[in-house]
Design a protein that fits this description.
The protein has one domain: Sandwich (Protocatechuate 3,4-Dioxygenase, subunit A), CATH 2.60.130. The chain has three helices and eight strands. The longest helix is centred in the first third of the chain and has 10 residues.
Length: about 220
């Protein structure tokens, strides 16, 4: 049976997420439903409001549909052979901790078990580790297609807004390379690669950290 929105919400909560984001969808980038409404991503206004106070309650949005998560550029800093690592923040002294959770689904809303998600990003100073695997690692989804990692909020660097790189790959499938963005960032408007439909839902978490959620559709 297709995974229901209720199951996805409960699964994300069990994985440690308190919010649910919609998939990165082409319809959003083509002037579709406004963010936070049915068919789009949670609004940057809602997420920013949650970040300013207590954790926001973000309206659930469709997690799957006809369109898969679109590809984005890999960029110059990808390193193959990352370790299996759900705690990218381990050994990282600075930065705001970010708990990111969600699911990988098919376009028909079926959970993708054993999907590989390979993450890499800059640290809070906007620097990538190009010699080792600091803030780099991959995880696999569970039986319900869920994933969870701990990382830090990436910093800015010239020409780019805050973002997290991801390669998502179903077992036996081709990898999808994309990027995840933060709502309410001033630099979003100046970044030519930014796509509003690829925003995560972000809210305040415990101990001054942040919580985010995103659903990948393959």
């Amino acid at each position: 049976m297709p995974i229901s929105r209720r199951d996805l919400i409960l699964g994300a909560a069990a994985a440690g997420a308190s919010i649910v984001a919609g998939a990165c969808r082409r319809t959003t980038d083509q002037g579709g439903a406004a963010a936070g409404s049915q068919g789009g991503s949670p609004s940057s206004t809602t997420a920013a409001g949650g970040a300013a106070g207590t954790a926001a309650t973000l309206a659930p949005t469709p997690a799957c549909g006809d369109d898969p998560t679109p590809a984005q550029t890999e960029g110059p800093f990808f390193t193959s052979g990352s370790p299996t690592n759900a705690n990218l923040a381990a050994g990282v002294g600075g930065g705001t901790r970010l708990a990111l959770a969600g699911a990988v689904l098919t376009t028909t809303c079926q959970p993708v078990r054993g999907a590989k998600l390979d993450f890499w990003q800059a640290d809070d100073g906007g620097e990538y580790d190009n010699q080792g695997f600091r803030l780099r690692g991959h995880v696999f989804t569970d039986e319900q297609g869920r994933y969870q990692i701990t990382t830090v909020v990436p910093g800015l660097y010239s020409g780019r807004t805050r973002h997290i790189h991801v390669k998502a790959q179903a077992p036996g499938g081709r990898p999808l390379t994309t990027q995840l963005y933060f709502p309410g960032e001033a630099a979003n408007a100046r970044d030519g690669l930014y796509r509003k439909g690829c925003e995560m839902a972000v809210a305040d978490g415990a101990d001054g950290g942040k919580e985010a959620s995103f659903t990948f559709v393959l």
